[in-house]
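We close this part of the discussion by returning to an individual protein. The encoding preserves chain order, so positions in sequence and tokens coincide. The sequence in question and its structure tokens are set out directly beneath this paragraph:

===
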Amino acid sequence: MGAVLLLGGSALAPLALAQQAPAPAPETTHVDHFTDRNVAQQQRIEQGLKSGQLTTREAAHLEQGTARIDRMQSRVTNPHGAGGAGVTATEAARIQRAQNAESHAIDHQRHDAQTGNPDSLSSRRMQGDVQRNLNQQGRIAAGVDHGGLTNREVSRLSAQQARSSHALAGAGRNGFVNGREQQRIQRGDNVRSRHIYSARHNGARRHGG
């Protein structure tokens, strides 16, 4: 009987150890953090334009930086890309460094010697374009926060937002946004707006943090 009890105890020991061992940390998506920060960055660019701290050319340069970040986010949230099923801590840290660099660039441009005229036609056009970009980023962030966007959908929408910011950067690179450029940007934004609405209301849900 003692041998049987000893055997039973030794058989249970590995199970007890397994129960006591800490579970592996789940892979964190981090998606909610960097989509919220996208909104904050766009708000600061918009505020800089409206206050005259940013010229049209400076805002265009900053939009190129946001386009780069959106492309990075698209790659790591793509389930078939580098990010796999989620975003790893290493990938999230890389994006955070890029966002920190963009934040420093915004701060530098808003406090350098150059000033813009927020009432000029070009600045007003850029302000309108940045405002629409901000609205789109806000809807994506809200979709992530409420679980209405999957990582796959965030990947696709981030790629589209990258194109939007790239278009803004190209239009304002010479310091002036003309009416034709703005119309082209608006047509693209309208398409992206419909894509965001569709992705948020198609019934797919995001899982994880």
